[in-house]
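The instructor's notes for this session suggest beginning with a concrete chain rather than abstract definitions. Hand out the sequence below and ask the class to guess, before any prediction is shown, which regions might be ordered.
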Amino acid sequence: MTLAVGARGKKKICRALTWMPDFGEDYMKRLFLSGMGFFLALTVFAQGNSQNTDVDIDALLRSMSIDEKVGQMVQVDISLFLTTNSTPPKIDTNKLRMAFDTYHVGSILNPVYVMPPADWQGIVKTIQGIALAESPHKIPVLYGIDSIHGANFMQGSTLFPHHPAMGATRNPDLVRESARISAMETRAAGVRWTFAPVLDVGRQPLWPRFSETLGEDPYLVSALGVAEIQGLQGTNLDSPTSVAACMKHFFGYSFPFNGHDRTLALIPDYYLREYFLPPFRAAVQAGVKTVMINSAEVNGVPVHGSKYMLTDILRDELGFKGMAVSDWQDVIRLHTWHHVAATPEDAVEKSVNAGLDMSMVPNDYSFFDLLKQAVQEGKVSEARLDESVRRILELKKELGLFRNPYPEPEALKNFGRPEYKQVALEAAEEAMTLLKNQNDILPLAKNEKVLVTGPAADTLTALNGCWSYSWQGTDAQWFPKDEPTVWGAIRNEIGATNVLYHHGVDFDGNAVDVNAAVADAKKVDVVVLCLGENSYAETPGNINDLALPRGQQEFAEQLYATGTPVILVLIEGRGRIVRQIVPGARGILMAYWPGSQGAVAIAKTLFGDVNPSGKLPYTYNRYVNNFITYDRDYTDGTTELPDETPQFEFGTGLSYTRFAYKNLKLSSPTLKGAGHLTVTVDVTNTGKREGKEAVELYTHELYASIAPPLRRLRAFQKIDLRPGETKTVTFELAASDLAFVNAESKLVTEPGGFEVEVGNLKQGFRYEQ
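After discussion, reveal the predicted structure:
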């Protein structure tokens, strides 16, 4: 999408400026006929084409006015610049000029609509051209987008499994490669900043953003989160294959007391530091460039106004040097929602003085006016302003925006390559988590007659989940026509003549054609029942009951009553309670929201082309009023009351082969001081087919100053074994791996006895300082 061609009489001049976007006739008149027009054109030409990688940020900062500095801290939604009488909408250049001429806006986010990357490049080119022409110091715009599990809002991009599924892979290499492809496809559109990865630890399954988390364990989230950052940022942000990553949401967002989005979290400081801080610490150490702030309150304090969290912890303790951006409208909400700021100006003052660098306003310029007023009144110092603006300018420099602010045409070749689908398929395949396989009913024979049914059986939206071309992921028109649903993938796998289909019920449990489905269930050899959740994102995904809708469960029970074996496939963003229908299912496959190749992965797993190797990244709970995690302590009752145990434990995941663990050995019975303990174990494939196994190492402290958890994940490796093959897996443990946050909020490793657990084996050792 581009703007109208400029006046014919100016074409000769424009040919010399082929790098410039097409601004339209009115703007070209203003630029070239004004007294300074030609000078401005030459200035923009020099700025845009010079290899200015050594721009002096300090000198630039000293030359900027207060208005320019304040404007750099403003991020607005692109809808501010769109025409309202056009479908699809187009850029209103007058509105865009005002944004840069009057408000000096530093950043823009979100799409015009779902566009091919070439159209995206046209939009970004237009924005950058006008920004440079209007900015006194020719400062380029930083454009951001939510590429959560693939390049979002970009038609034809590759969508990978959502984060819980990636957590189930236990494969950092796959996470890194998926992120690298997401970065290339995002950069191909001219966008150099993505609001990912989500590093919130998923320990509240009601939370509607649970589907964006990598799991409930801080080590797992840290390890895979770092891999994602490495894939997104690469080794050079100026490369046309890299984007700046944004760790989010700092921090404690994912543990709301009532389970709803953007609501109060009550988290003791030691627990906050033990479980929710580590992934952010790891991300800072990995060099993440930006951070997005938690929208909610932690212990009554909105994080956007917390100097303790944004400066004392984020900057001073973790050592983060990058740029901090708010989430949607969250600065003004210090006044309108949280009531910790008496006026809108107080809200801006409070957030900036707490440590915020950029406000996602996003639908007006109020932040600009209010922050300028606060600086003029001395409530926010210019020195504080300079801190934030320096961080923003440094990021723009690292991204190569001062060298070349325009989309790189050569980056288009990195979009939509066929091999990307193969990576998405591999990720979905390794995510498939087999939770039940009674009498080895799986894999199914390809000559069996199958009924495919359930609300998730014939939909792409439930496979891809949120942030899939659109925010909610429910706009199916954007999904590629060649991607099959589960029903279509099974037809492709075993032939259309072997497959019957009925919708059965919808996601709310309302009957559609239940009677017909039950009747046909009696005519087939097996039923593949796809239950779960349709796509949702953020607050629209709030629920009051974690149980799968009763109508879905009743449909399962009706199918069980036919006597035909039923394989339950769960396609969902969080673990909905299914306690009542677990016993009747002969097999249960957890598919999560598996992305664009998820249906193919499901079909290949059910019929044996893929041997499942996924491990649950969270505890799948049995009851709606008994949320527990794998690292619970002795007092939760599960050690004494078996019915109180989870439906499926963290790390559960069956295979079509068998693995035996032997010879767990420690290099020493004692770990001393700064030394290391080497742990080795032999893993053998004792079955008849090749398989992958995630070998996990847990530790358990026997006694500690606070009640120790039953076990904690400390390391994992994924290996591939042929039938009869044995591999020795080696881990290294240091004192820091055994550390925990004590009652005084100090990270300590206490001397005493420990156990190492790998597979079904345990071995004891002592730690001495």
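Then share the key points. The first strand starts at residue 74 and ends at 77. DSSP finds 23 helices and 26 strands in the chain.
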